[in-house]
Amino acid sequence: MSGGVLIVGGSVGGIRTARALRNEGYAGAVTVVEAESHLPYDKPPLSKVPLDGDAHVPLLTAEEARELGIELVLGSVAVELRAQTNQLVLADGVVLDYDELVIATGAAARPSPWTGPGVHVLRTLADARALRESLQGASRLLVVGAGFIGAEVASLARKQGIEVTIVDPAPIPMARIVGDGLGERLSDLHRTNGVETKFGTTVSTLDRVDGGLRAQLSDGSEFPVDAVVVGIGAVLDVGWLESSGLTLDDGVVCDEYGRTPTFTHIHAVGDISKWYQPRLDKSARVEHWTNAVEQANTVAHNIVHPDDLQAHDPVAYVWSDQYNWKIQLFGTRDTTADPLVVEQSDPLRLAAIWQDSDGRASGGFTVNWPKASVQLRRTIAAGGPADAVHTQLSTPAVKR
Ligand SMILES: Cc1cc2nc3c(=O)[nH]c(=O)nc-3n(C[C@H](O)[C@H](O)[C@H](O)COP(=O)(O)OP(=O)(O)OC[C@H]3O[C@@H](n4cnc5c(N)ncnc54)[C@H](O)[C@@H]3O)c2cc1C
Q1: What residues contact 81, with CB distance under 8 A and at least 6 apart?
Q2: Beta strand spans in 35-156 (E)
């Protein structure tokens, strides 16, 4: 094969790039190389679709791929990039040429310190299916790590009536992201939904006893579990890019247009990429779905319209479904000041607004309040004042 756009990684970043290229009118070859053998699927549903439902939500069907002229090379791992000669080497020795390359290889689950039956991480469809199988008929689940994925799995398990213990070394696990006050609310959310929280605690041992698993925690408690989910973050694999000449620094370094500085026809999108963000005046890697989609659209535009380069300068955004809370989080948090909060009970709605030292809204957190999220995100993007949006959200019209 020669020429066209070659995309490495067939998840949301890669597939959205391929689709956006066609939307932009790109008529050349579009090829997606993907390590997994499944047709492309989306990741957020893996921790959100109820345990008795199908977590497989396709990103591109075989028919759509045919219609759009997107060639999928599934079950193929890229092992080397020869950037000087525009060539990608696959594990089976096949060498693919390209005119433009898009790296969308994402991240992998940080490996669990324990392995074997009943112990899971959650990053792929295969992980999700294995976890769901383990939880069939399970009565007790141990969740290690109270970040977004751990919290969502705990929530799904509780809905199935499974007893859940969640362990995290941090006393208020989400405080790093949302501050102590909101972090404590998220901890309480677990407790009010019947989860046993063991925060400020670690797992000392996880042993196999009589065909089952037995956990011992650093607080001395000990109990049997049927399954364990380890949600302790993600890791990058850039080993295959080491000899490429690309700048690697906790990800593939790109400018605000998604181009690598050394080779402007090589781009990166999604979790693997580290774009320069003018708004923050720094390069940052973002592990959120919406960021991957927005970067994909930007890169596709910039490939098709090199004379009209568009920058992507995002207000970071992530959502999470936990119990009966639909959480949305965006922008950046000023760690020195408490947020302005608007809260309504019965049913609960909450919006918290962070501001920078000039009083501009810099970040927000909402619960069950999509309208406030839209307004907050717009205000942050426009650099609008935090107190004004706080006042607006406090008025009855917006509360509805
Ligand atoms: C369970 C779960 C729930 C999530 N929920 C949310 C959420 O609610 N909201 C949110 O904003 N974000 C969420 N995320 C994060 C979001 O899904 C990611 O930010 C997004 O998937 C990143 O997309 P990506 O295309 O950059 O990378 P990935 O989705 O990681 O995909 C990378 C792809 O590249 C392939 N690949 C890797 N290396 C190679 C190689 N050498 N050769 C060929 N192929 C390769 C992989 O097989 C994979 O398919 C969630 C993630 C998970 C795992």
Answers
A1: 87, 88, 89, 101, 240, 241, 243, 244, 246
A2: 70-74, 78-82, 87-90, 95-97, 100-103, 108-109, 119-120, 140-144
- Residue whose C-alpha is closest to residue 40's, from 50, 31, 32, 49: 32
> How far, CA to CA in Å, does 10 sit from each of 59, 99, 224?
9, 19, 39
- Is 107 close to ligand 1, i.e. is its CB under 6 Å away? yes
pLDDT tens by residue, 17-56: 999 999 999 999 999 999 999 999 999 999 999 999 989 9
- Contact criterion met (CB below 8 Å) for 68 and 22: yes
Instruction: Judge contact between 89 and 54, C-beta under 8 A.
Output: no
Which residues lie across from 252 on neighbouring strands?
248, 273
For atom 26 of ligand 1, which residue has the closest CA?
Answer: 270
What residue's CA is closest to ligand 1, atom 27? 106
Strands (E), 106-162: 108-109, 119-120, 140-144
| Beta-strand pair 212-217/100-103 | unpaired
pLDDT, one tens digit per residue, over 377-393 is 999 999 999 999 999 99
**CA 236 to chain CA mean position, Å:** 13
Q: Confirm if 153 and 47 have CB atoms less than 8 A apart.
A: yes
Find where tokens 């070659």 sit. 6
- What rounded mean pLDDT belongs to the chain? 95
Most ligand 1 atoms within 8 A of CB, residue of 8, 271, 291 to mutate? 271
Angle between helices 148-159 and 175-192 (to 10 degrees): 10
Domains, the chain: 5-107+236-304 (3.50.50.60), 111-230 (3.50.50.60), 324-399 (3.30.390.30)
